[in-house]
Amino acid sequence: MTQNEQDAAIERFRSGETKFLVATSVAEEGMDIPDCNIVIRYNHVGNEITTVQTRGRSRKRGGTSLLLGVEEVLQREILNIGRSKMMDDAILQFRRMSLPKVKKQIKDHQEKIIQDEELKEEVSKGNQKNKINSHFQLLCFKCKELTINNEFIKTINKTHHVVTDPEFRSKLYLRSDQSPRNPFDGIQITGKIYCKECNNHLGVMFRYKGIMFPSIRMEGFQIVTSTGQPMMRKKWKDLPFMVKEMSHEDYLGMISSRRETRNPERRDNDVIVPTCQDNQFEEDMDET
């Protein structure tokens, strides 16, 4: 709906012409309808902030907010209610503090964050020093037909492992998410990628800086060393070999190859994979 159509629908509700409104998650914020006396959510729950925002949609005195859902959804809502109460208590405690004490605690917290980040960086550097700068290959764990040479494996933000080989996409097919997730780290996931030969789940496809990247998960592959020795690792952090960060030249190369190669195949008989739950979404990204 356009903004004008939304405004017209809300006006019909206010005038009594329409008795109820049906809305997506847009109702969690940005909609102010004073005459609304009940909000019903069906199998939909976010975090503690969205719980408070949705409750605020019922502005009329004596208004009610109801949630209808399966047990898992209800348990998440109970957790959100507890967290929102903790937020209220924290705000109350914060308001009772003197300004000098507030400034001191903020400064102490900022210094702790900086120290933690510096320590994390030193640990990361130490781990990199222990890694071997040597050739290796990744083979699809199931069929062993799909291979990736290590020079085509790079990292983004030192976390997400992507493949820069333009031929790699022709060996995949993509199952798109029905509803896009909110971006994080500048990354927007668009779906999951699978080996075209054996349907092995290899990782996810995401957009970063306007470029589509296949991001692979360690568990989908077998490692083969330069001497032909096979090995298995569950997490990228356990890989004994060095993987370089994406450079400016790598990004330019991806842009150039994008013009020459097509996107991963979407098979006509594929069932679109429903958007995963938040916890599954985090697990997918941990794997890449």
From TrEMBL:
GO cellular component: cytoplasm
Pfam families the record matches: Helicase_C, RIG-I_C-RD
RLR CTR domain boundaries: 124-253
Domain Helicase C-terminal: 1-98
Domain of life: Eukaryota
The protein's name in its UniProt record: RNA helicase
